[in-house]
Design a protein that fits this description.
Keywords: Isomerase. By secondary structure, the protein is α/β, with parallel strands linked by helices. The protein has helices at residues 3-40, 59-72, 89-94, 122-126, 141-146, 149-159, 188-194, 209-220, 233-245, 251-264, 332-343, 357-360, 363-366, 372-380, 383-392, 399-402, 422-430, 447-476, 487-490, 525-535, 545-567, 572-582, 590-599, 614-626, 643-653, 727-735, 740-750, 759-773; strands spanning 268-270, 278-284, 310-316, 327-329, 408-413, 497-502, 505-510, 519-523, 666-671, 675-682, 704-709, 718-722. The protein has five domains: 1-40; 46-220, no CATH class; 231-355, no CATH class; 396-632, no CATH class; 636-773, Nonspecific Lipid-transfer Protein, Chain A, CATH 3.30.1050. The strands form four sheets. The chain has a four-stranded mixed β-sheet. It has a four-stranded mixed β-sheet with strand order 11-10-9-12, with helices on both faces. It has a two-stranded parallel sheet with strand order 1-4. 39% of the residues are buried.
Amino acid sequence: MSRLTHFGLTRSLQRALVIASLLVTIGCVSMGGSQWDQRYGKAVPREVATSPQKVSRNYYQHTKTIIEQRCVVCHGCYDAPCQLKMESYEGILRGANPTRVYDGSRLLGASLTRLFEDAQSTEAWRGKGFHPVINERGNSASANINAGVMAQLLALKQDNPLPEDALLSSAFNLDINSPQYCASIENLEQYTRKNPLLGMPYGLPGLSDQEYKVTMDWLKQGAAMGKAPELPRQIYTDIARWEAFLNGNTPKAQLVNRYIYEHLFLAQIDFASAPGVYFRLVRSSTPPGEPLQRISTARPFDDPKVNRVYYRLWQDPSSVVAKTHMPYRLDAARIAQWQTLFYASDYEVTQLPGYSSETASNPFVTFAQLPIDARYRFMLNEARFTIMNFIKGPVCRGQVALNVIQDHFWVFFYSPESQATDEDARFLAENSKHLQLPAGAGNTLLPLTNWLKYSELQKEYLAAKAKFISQKMAAEGGLVMHGIWDGDKGTNDNAALTIFRHADSASVHKGLIGQSPKTAWVIGYPLLERIHYLLVAGFDVYGNVSHQLLSRLYMDFLRIEGEMNFVELLPREAQQPTMQYWYRNAESNLQTYIDLYLKQVDLTNNIQYHTDAPQEELYLKLKQHLGKAGQSAHNLNTAKLPAAKLALYHRLQNTSGKAISFLPQTTLIELRGVGLFSLIHNSAYSNLSSLFGEDKRRIPAEDNLTLARGVIGAYPNSFLRIGPDELDEFIDRLQQIDSEQGYFALKERFGIRRTHPEFWAFSDRVHQLYKTAEPEEAALLDYNRLENR
């Protein structure tokens, strides 16, 4: 027999075996499904409208709070395990799907599975690969428990509680990138037989007896929805007024409202008349007064395929989770502000732009007819919200975009007056082609080709910018501190921001928090707009690896530009050494981008320096310039503490050496009688200029800690509880850690591990303290990154 014939037979045999295996598998599943059908009837997708009515337990009145406090803390946002988003009743009805949303390796874009958008019924979700977690067969007590995944996994935890050990065994895989086990009722028994300890809540203590009884009674009775709380009557008046404002008929109004929508589509809009109720600004094919017909596209600037778009307010029934919580208040002051920004000045909109991908993804083309001052002010007035979209939006998890930023840095902004001249408008118009963004390329299969294109465009832009800034500063007499926004003389607390990166998540806060960071950014209008259209409006979390890679690589350009804007404020002789320190051992081509701007820009710096530490001196000058606008309630010295107590806190923050290396990224501490504190481990890197090899660029000896009042970050890694007289002891123990055993002992003394019998009571207390201290910001934390140490 020839080798070719043998190979052909072997391949044929392999195919036959694969087909036979599939047939057996399908047969087993079908047989299993048939058995369930015989026992409890055929499955029929459960819709909101078919929710049981005559029951004593329902979601809104009895189980919503339990599910929020015990389930949503893991099952929320795009990174909910098995896409089981439990923030809403509709999400529970939708069920689970084994396909990951966050997948940085897929070659093709994934199907969109956004709750409330990409399907409008449970039946439609079944067609997209979601399987139920509550019973969809006959509505009987036995069927509702025995044929429901959620009921079975809750019962599994009650029958098999966590072992009484400090640490969970290797049977628990807590790596967020580990394989998911998204069992359906047809294969659940096989799953639970092999994994009796994997009941829900996974890797955490079970529900209390009372919580378990209420939840199981609810499930036994058919998991009824009940009636959502009624909204105050005033809210309907508010909505009507705002929808009228957002749907003016003139070309100017339509373009202004498109701009507003593309910047607020992720906002949780709220009104004073309905505290705690949130709305989303959505596109609709129907005008105000008619039933809302939502237009769902992958990105907010994609073609709506209708003649006229209307902007409507849709109530979001979801529970509020910290990792996506971005409140945005609409009130009389806001409407007056927008009237002034967009309608007070005399300009015309002669033609509405289209929705072709190449131009719609470039805001400098789409919105060229709107005044720059209006656009910049719109974002700047709520700068934290604008930046938070990048932090909490589509990239709410994953190092695709977040390993492009330092662990701790400050952000400042150019003043609106410095960005809104006629010369600025002409410069942007002439260079709009240089400001193209990767969103225009979509899910390309040619990342290298596109990266070369965008890198050349960025080089051309930096050269043009250097020439423009040189001419502009020469005409204005040079750089002055007043070119930095002071928050309108301290009245706007968005003038300075602090960003913390926590490995694969991040958080942004008002004011300058912590010790002086290694790096800082200064952001003006073109940079702020590009960040938004790169990582918010133009970022597709369902996109392929090329799209995500291009977004990350392009963000390198934007980070470097923001850093150069800051370094530009330093004495000329300090600029290159500073950038070289920030980019130690970086790729050689990085210097090209630095030289194209810093070596070419020629300006007089009128900021006076008197020390040999100009960066620290600049930080001090900026703090003085910002005044109240640079302060933060998270800083230790804002509580007017006694000197001895403040010194103790600073002693903890100034911990250095090997001990830091054993700490996780974010530790949430309850100091009893005082409140919550966050201990943040800031990791140091030689540079952030490469997508790969991050571990090789780590410099642990330069790590430091930030101790902040309140909650920093949405994903705590560790919980500690310290008595009012135990802080000295805690600091001593912490600073003496020199091994994993030392850290284990610290957690034994002060920790509330995920295995602690009081874990849920502590969790409830943390959320209560959070809500009391920060009522507008507080939301459900996420426990997917809690350590097991």
